[in-house]
Write a structure and sequence with these properties.
Bound molecules: adenosine-5'-diphosphate, 6-O-phosphono-beta-D-fructofuranose
Structural class: alpha/beta
CATH architecture of the largest domain: 3-Layer(aba) Sandwich
CATH topology of the largest domain: Rossmann fold
Distance between the termini: 57 Å
Amino acid sequence: MERIGILTSGGDCAGMNAALRSAVRTARKKGVEVYGFKHGFVGILEKDFISLDSRHVSGILQRGGTVLQSARCEEFKTNKGQEKGFSNLKELGVGGMIVIGGDGSLNGAFVLHQMGMPTVGIPATIDNDIYGTDMSIGVDTALNTITHAIDTIRDTASSHDRAFIIEVMGRHSGYLALTAAIASGAEAAVIPEVPYDLGAIADNLLQRYEAGKTNSIIIVAEGGSDAYTIERKLKHRIGYETRITVLGHLQRGGEPSVFDRLLASEFGMRAVEALLEGRSGEMVALQSNEYLAIPFEEVFAHKKVIPQRLLELAETLSS
Ligand code: ADP
Ligand code: F6P
């Protein structure tokens, strides 16, 4: 394989640049040329790319976002778009592809593989909703950002005897909300995976209020509900005055944590090695502290579930 392509797609996250840097440096060291496609799958359809050498990826390890830029590309979901993308890659002499992104982007990678383009995926999304890997790139950084924000909000919450309802990202996944709740000592978390009982949350908060607890934090995953709805329903039942904070895209940016830099560096190198070993249709992954690669078929045949233990931990510590 003389030339590989790489792209970042879907929601950006911290650590994408670190993965890109690692893949480029690994490939260049082995004498393989790298085309970096801009704006996710759009770059393939528009043949918008740059040839990347080690110099191009200097100084990006510690930067959030993605220097290749990202996009959501509806055209690549169609047969016509996929055929166009595949034939453009062939025309450009690209012999293998690395796709860095979330669940949707990895579906796009699977399509390329099925069409006959050797392709390896790197899981990167703050949602941590990709089956087969304990952690995706970006999760740890987002969690650190959220936890820092909640610690900060706790100061003002405790100064005013208030309950804060804090909304975090996670379209279909409560992982960020639940783990942030554990890490920040929140009093409750509302997540899409578990039906929530607002009556029980209200009773718990009221009891705490009456026992003299001066503040509380309720974390809501956007896929579970939204902060405004939860506030409206809780407001008159809990004693505390309430305020809302929606953390929004603050959670996606920022310099990657050390964990994400290490994870992304490993994933980038392993993705290139897999392609050069003639493998395709796999996602690099981390399971129980071991790096491995698993077939896309397996990734998409399952839905990642929140470990029961995490639910128990959150429940016990907030009681
Ligand atoms: P994420 O990768 O963060 O989950 P999306 O679900 O929005 O983000 O997907 C990102 C992009 O991946 C889409 O805009 C599209 O270009 C591509 N994609 C998603 N699903 C598919 C699919 N089933 N087939 C081909 N490409 C897809
Ligand atoms: O999938 C990652 C994610 O950050 C979700 O948690 C969130 O719902 C979504 O992307 C937001 O997407 P956008 O940046 O397009 O608004």
